[in-house]
């Protein structure tokens, strides 16, 4: 898969993408190993192109289920942790039940 940034084109394997995150008018494509490409393609485009191993957990995040490490609740919110990242990603309240069911199937 090609990732087109403003002044650079990257080639990567889809399986190396850990998540895609909305960031203003750009979208961050996070790769296993820590690299991040800033592209202009919106999340809807990514959803259409990526395989079913990718889940929309929030209006701002698509995550690769292959890197799923933990689903936890803090306060009244659910969060996902992906392998290779200490960051907790918020799960939207609207999608929380569906995400919990989908991740339970994957375990």
Descriptive notes:
There is one protein chain. With 107 residues, this protein is α+β, with helices and mostly antiparallel strands. The chain is built from 2 helices and 10 strands, in the order βββββαβββββα. The strands form 3 sheets. It has a 5-stranded antiparallel β-sheet, with helices on one face. A hairpin with a 4-residue loop joins strand 4 and strand 5 (36-39). It is globular. The model has no long low-confidence stretch (mean pLDDT 90).
State the main characteristics.
3-stranded antiparallel beta sheet, alpha+beta, 5-stranded antiparallel beta sheet, single chain, 107 residues, 2 helices
Short structural summary:
With 107 residues, this protein is of the alpha+beta class.
List the SSEs and their pairings.
Elements: E1 2-4, E2 9-11, E3 17-23, E4 26-31, E5 36-39, H1 43-49, E6 54-58, E7 61-64, E8 68-74, E9 77-82, E10 88-90, H2 96-106
Antiparallel strand pairs: 1-2, 3-4, 3-7, 4-5, 6-7, 8-9, 9-10
User: What fraction of residues sit in β-strands?
Assistant: 35-45%
What's the main sheet like? 5 strands, antiparallel
Overall 3D shape: globular
Round the Cα radius of gyration to an integer and report it: 14 Å
The largest beta-sheet arranges its strands as: 5-4-3-7-6
> What is the terminal-to-terminal distance?
27 Å
Summarize model confidence as the mean pLDDT. Answer: 90
* Total number of helices: 2
Total strands: the figure is: 10
Order of helices and strands: EEEEEHEEEEEH
Helix proportion of residues, in percent?
Answer: 10-25%
Structural class: alpha+beta
Low-confidence runs: none
